[in-house]
Every structure is written in structure tokens, then in C-alpha cells.
Amino acid sequence: MLSYRHSFHAGSFADVLKHIVLIEILQHLLKKDKAIHYIDTHAGAGLFDLDSEHSTKLKEFETGINRVKEVDWPELMTYFEIIRSFNGPRKPDYYPGSPMIALRLLRDHDRAWFYELHSTDSRLLSENVAHDRRVKVMSSDGFDGLLSLLPPVSKRALIVIDPAYEIKSDYAEVVHTLRDAHRKFTTGTYALWYPVIERERIERLVRALEATKIPNIQRFELCVRPDSLNDGMTGAGMIVINPPWTLMATMHVLLPRLVAVLGQEPGADYKADTIAAE
Ligand SMILES: C[S@@+](CC[C@H](N)C(=O)[O-])C[C@H]1O[C@@H](n2cnc3c(N)ncnc32)[C@H](O)[C@@H]1O
Predict the structure, then answer these.
(1) Does the domain formed by 6-276 have CATH 3.30.1300.10?
(2) Which pLDDT band holds residue 2 (cuts at 50, 70, 90)?
(3) Domain residue spans in the chain?
């Protein structure tokens, strides 16, 4: 039984990092006319009301999107335009999830598959994308679903894997899924989100990915507080397989700025490195 609801965490610093990387990758893929497939294995509800009971309980958006929305970095122009497109001049404030962000960028001939296992969020997501003929919402397991879709006919795809890791087996499952998916579809771009709660767990995740021998893997991580075993989620990262060639340089510009704006304590830091060479 799943209890995680992303509505408690929407717009957090972790979402900011995730969605910036997502947009950077999609914008690069969309430079070519040929259709792409966008597959979101853990899609969430798609759109979040930041004035809702859930969001205002933890107010994670206050140390996330609210802190960055005042900056005027040209690299984030598209991100802010997308957020603005969901909001009118008055409250409530809405924050889009990964499916709605992707749909704002995808073209008529692109296709999207959204997997969401939680029945309420799956229903909300279906309502949010109703009438969009590019999309299929699946209320089933995203790990299995992904493997059933590969390789995509278009041979061009972005796969986003964004589990909540409330089930600890997710740490192993993401590696097995990436290994199997990459065997079926070697040239796809894969973006895996992870939380930094326990550094040793992330080191194990990285070692397990290295052991798959998948080449061309980069990591982008933002830590708003120093690593700690008893301070909850102190950071979050995105691991990208077959990243756009521009991504590392862009993130080297953005991550230090994000640390300056989103860092919560001395010792806030970032990583932008290569886990496996091309
Ligand atoms: C971190 S949230 C997703 C947030 C979303 N990607 C975004 O950026 O807006 C993870 C979601 O995965 C769903 N979920 C958990 N296990 C799943 C599975 N095996 N297959 C599909 N969805 C799952 C949860 O219900 C939750 O809504």
C-alpha cells in the first residue's frame, strides 16, 4: 500500500533540481524534428495547488521554488514560463509536476506515457491530461511498464524514473530496471532522481550503476545541508544516462548558483561529475 503523496513535497528544492534537468534534456532532444517518446515511470498527479492542506503542511515550496522564482538567470527562462503558464495573477499558486512540464514542451507528433500507481494521484493525473491525445496514463507499475515499451518505434526517447524510495527495494530496482532497459534500448536518454538521506546508500547506488557497465552516465546533485544520518533529506540528485552534450556545462553554471540560493546551512554543496565515460 503506497502512502507517499507528492502533494506534500511539490516545489521543493529537489523538484527544482529535477525539473531544471528535465527541461534541459527535453529542450535538447526537441531540437530535432523527429518524434520523441517521453516515458515517466513515476509520474505523480501532474499539478499541485501550493495552497492546499498537503502543501501548506510542510511548506517545502518555500525553500524551493519560492526562493528561485526571483532570480533572472536566462537558463531558467523556460522553467519559469512553464510555471507561469499554470498560474493566473491571483492565488492559488500551482506548481506543475514532471508530466505537465514535459507536455508543455512536447510537440503534436511526440508521445507520452505516464505511469502512476497511487489510485488518487492516477485519477488526478488523468483529469489533468484529459483530452490530450499525445498521452497515455497507466495506473500500473512504472518499472514493468517501461520495459514493455522499449525500444520505442521512434528510436528517440527520454525516460524519467522518479520513485519516492518509500520502499527501500526501489534503490536496487532502479538499477535492475536501468540495466534491462538499456539492454533493450541503448541509445535512449534516462534520467533517474534520487534523494540524499544516507550518503552510503547513494555510494552503493553509484557503484551498482558502474557495475552494470552502462557507458556515458553523469550525475548532478544539489545538497542544501551537509550529509547527515539524522537530518532527513539533505540533498537530491539526477543521474543521467546518454545526457545531451551540453548538460554538464549548463549544470556547472547553474549548480553553484542554486547552492547559493537554495543552500540552508554552511556546507551546502553540489556535484556535477561523470560516473561512466562515453
Ligand atoms: C516522487 S513522486 C513523482 C513526482 C513526479 N515525477 C514529479 O516530478 O512531479 C513518485 C510517485 O510514484 C508513484 N509510485 C510509487 N511506486 C510506483 C510504481 N512502482 N509505479 C508507478 N508509480 C509509482 C507514487 O505514488 C508517487 O506519486
Answers:
(1) no
(2) confident
(3) 6-276
